[in-house]
Each structure stands twice: as structure tokens, then as C-alpha cells.
Amino acid sequence: MMQKTMGVTFAANVDINVLLRNIFFVSTLMLGVLEAIVTHISSRLLLKRLRMKLPESTPLYLYYPPKWIGYMALVGMFGYLYVGSGYIKTEPAMTILSALGTFAYFYLTAMGVVGLLVMIGLLAKESRRILTFVVFILALAMSFPVALYGFFYITTNMHKRIVEEGYHATKK
Prior knowledge:
By secondary structure, the chain is mainly alpha-helical. It contains six helices and two strands; from the N terminus they run E-E-H-H-H-H-H-H. Strands 1-2 form a two-stranded antiparallel ribbon. Strand 1 (2-5) and strand 2 (8-11) form a beta hairpin. The chain is globular. It starts with a strand and ends with a helix. 22% of the residues are buried.
């Protein structure tokens, strides 16, 4: 059974108030993370402009999260999908699982984008700009496969293989 609110159709088991509260909570968290990134980057630019000595930034391809974060994010993502199935009836459990699951889904998608960008940066030197654009379009249009790629990027030795093969490809 479906319900219609403001021209948008939802499943009958979805509470609009809970959904809006979760969207607000997750967007607040994501904006906080984005604000921290922007503040960090702008402060580094300002300090470099003031000719202060700063340690070099770590390249993106050297960042690698622990494997347990990937497994926890996958559990959170499937918890979110389980909430959507309608088997959970208690509102606090739905709120917590959907908020954590949405954040985990965004995290895995972001790590998938990072993994694809690292692979493009190290292996495809000629067509890097077009492929970067394609990666961001993929992340928007097909975020679930990109999130699964992010899970495999975190939990397998894919990162190590990409960095080693890219290193050897640049030395040829």
C-alpha cells in the first residue's frame, strides 16, 4: 500500500516525520564533515600564503581506512535496507538504523569514489579529467554499485594492488 504526500509517493510503512528527521540529522552530520574539510583546506591555503612552514599533505592514494570500518558500514547499510522492508515497527530503532545506515551508505559511496579516483590517478594519465567526471556521474546515478566498490576497496587488498600496479605503470 502506498501513501501520497505533496505529490510524492511513499510506501505505507514509511513515516514521513521519521524520514524528515533522519534527513535532517544525516544532512547536519554531512554538512559538519564538509565544513571541517573546507575549513582545513582554506586554513592550509591561508597559512601557506602567510609563508608558514606546514607539513606536506598526505596524498589521497596513501589514505586507507581500517577494514573493520568497511564491515561496520556494510552492516549499517544493510540495516538501512532492512528498515525499508517494514519489519521493524519501533520508532527509535527505525530512527537509529536509518540514520546510521544512511551515513554508512554515504561513507561507502565516498570510499568507492576515492578508490576509483585513486585508480584513475595512478593508471590512466591521459584521460584523467573525463574519467573523473564519469566517476562523479556514476556516484550520483548508480550509488549502490559504487558503495559496493567502496566496501571492496576497504576490505580487500584492492588498494594495495592499485597503488603497486600504478606505481609500476608510472615507472615504465
